[in-house]
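Bug #2210: token dump truncated for Ferritin-like domain-containing protein?
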Amino acid sequence: MVNWFWKRKPQRRTLTLRSRGDNGGAQRVDFAELAPELNRFLGQAAYLQLGYFETLSRGIRGTAELARKEALSRAAGAALDKHRGIVEVIADQGEDPTEVMLPFRENLDDFRRKTIGERQEETLLAVYLTAGMLDDFYLALASSYGETGERVAEILRQPDAGDEIVSIIQQTIESDSEWRSLLSMRGRRLVGDTLLVCRDALRPGRLDADDKRIEPVYTELMGAHARRMDAMGLAS
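Reproduced locally. Full output below:
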């Protein structure tokens, strides 16, 4: 008997979301066919890291303080290393990395423009928080792609020098108490746009029918976001 492809039982995929520094107790969420095709996953993940590198590099040029330049150079270098690592994975698949990333350039550049603040400290906060949420999300998605996903997960787990940005934010808050409320508000506003990027990362065409299954993932991401905010002394 013919086993028609549209009647085959879909493969079940499980996403595990884990906040940075948390080695256990992660919530497991079953998605079933919502994880995107491999090139969509790789292209978005690679271009996001390139965008963070570009934003942080501009920050280096935009500050005269040597210590801050050094801190931002380490954070930018970490983002570039992740980008290069994922690009290498794409190339090993026999694909052109530029072609794989290109379909996502416009939307992700628009996301980055929305998160850039009027002041450098606002932009650095946005980089730290959005990169944290999206690295968590893509790290979870990586479990859907076998050995290739394991390679990407290893890349995303590399140190990101986020503590350098946290130190700058904390020094900023200590220098002027008005920064605390401003950055707290900024951090809360970032959540919606970042969750939209997560939604766009999933397989198109099924999302409207599967919002209830996606909701626990959003809850986990927002929980990890709140913990990052609290660790910096900002109200979430």
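Output looks complete on our side. The longest strand covers residues 14-17. Marking as cannot-reproduce; reopen if the truncation happens again.
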